[in-house]
Amino acid sequence: MAAVDVLIPVYNAGKTVRQTLDSVRSQTMADFRVIVIDDGSTDNSAAVLAEMAARDSRIEVHRQPNSGIVDALNVGLRRCTAEFIARLDGDDLCFPNRLEVQLDYLRGHPGVVAVGAAARHIDADGVPLSTVARMGDPELANPYYVPSSEPYIIHPFLMVRRAAIEAVGGYRYVYHAEDTDLYWRLRNRGRLVNLKEILGDYRMHAESISGTSILNGRVSALSSQLASLSEQRRQRGATDLVFRKESLAAYKHAGTLAAMVELAADGMEDSERRYLTQATVGKLLELAAYRPFELDTLDCEYVGEVARRGFGNLTAENAGVLNRRICGSAARIATSGRTRDALKMIPARLMPSFAPRYVSRAMLPASLSRRLRRKGTRESPYT
């Protein structure tokens, strides 16, 4: 039995998966097995995976009809037998010491159930960018903040104790936030830690942006806050939320953020409905500040509707963060030429804060304004 099973779900990653697997095969430790779930790829992934498996007996490939990343991950989990499971995606790269460093840490800290790492950004061609992804301390997570402060670990660089992930039931259908939902539940089994070491390359796919990116952004914003609401329920001993596989199709059919929230909030108490509404809006504003999609007119109207209700239920600090985020997003949208949409987001009480932000941003050179937004995304066929 290997010390670590490396779990890799693959869907149409034929251009990158060979390099990914080579990065695992080059580890400083050799006591690992690679479990690859080919989730019905339609490109040359199957041929590449078969070739790699023939070259290295530690690589096991299992092909299934396309069913989505949650099913692929859970199928892979059921095939894992090692004490520790390391995640990796079919387009990311491990540094040679990645598995050894994380394994040594978990073995030396029995109270820690999962560990992450920092990762260097690379572009679609594997060229290093000038940024490094570093996550905060998962111990500081707060499911009641709006939007929630998540106990986040970069998912492809997660290493977790198999007993812990099995105890919480694996992955759930919390679409585009299935990792965040997992981390909330793992926290109830022990500590989560993000190591400071850079242990791999995290590939950014700016060229794969599609017209549905804002739709996916809405789903991600909603799902991440449902995961937080689920944690709130567990903390107070209430009945947990149920996440159904068909919910993704229902959200996408609903289309708008307002309709998605209404659908998800059906049957909730007023306090939960208010949390979900405010937190989802706040999360979408956060995502749009750096993702390569932008709020559309209906999003702007919904943000304005929520903003006009006010945030009197929140702490002054939390309300201030949301108000600044609304003003900042509106200023960005206004300077892109969509002044009418921007003004739909701003209630009268926020105009004194919005106006100087807009003027300040409007005076910036266009190139600097674009850099301030730090456009970039982590896109894969699953998202």
Explain what this protein looks like in three dimensions:
By secondary structure, this protein is an alpha/beta fold. It is 46% helix and 16% strand. The chain has 15 helices and nine strands. Strands 1, 2, 3, 4, 5, 6, 7, 8 and 9 form a nine-stranded mixed β-sheet that branches. Helix 2 links the parallel strand 2 and strand 3 (59-64). It is globular and about 65 Å long. Mean pLDDT is 93; it is low at 207-212 and 375-383.
Strand element count: 9
Number of helices: 15
Distance, first to last CA:
33 Å
Alpha-beta content class: alpha/beta
Set out the fold topology.
Blueprint: E1 4-10, H1 17-25, E2 32-39, H2 45-55, E3 59-64, H3 69-79, E4 84-87, E5 93-94, H4 98-108, E6 112-122, E7 128-133, E8 159-161, H5 162-167, H6 178-186, E9 191-203, H7 213-235, H8 247-254, H9 257-264, H10 270-288, H11 297-309, H12 316-335, H13 339-345, H14 351-362, H15 366-373
Parallel strand pairs: 1-2, 1-4, 2-3, 6-9
Antiparallel strand pairs: 4-8, 5-9, 6-7, 6-8
Task: Offer a quick outline of the entry.
By secondary structure, the protein is an alpha/beta fold.
From the structure above, extract its key features.
383 residues, alpha/beta, nine-stranded mixed β-sheet, 9 strands, 46% helix, globular
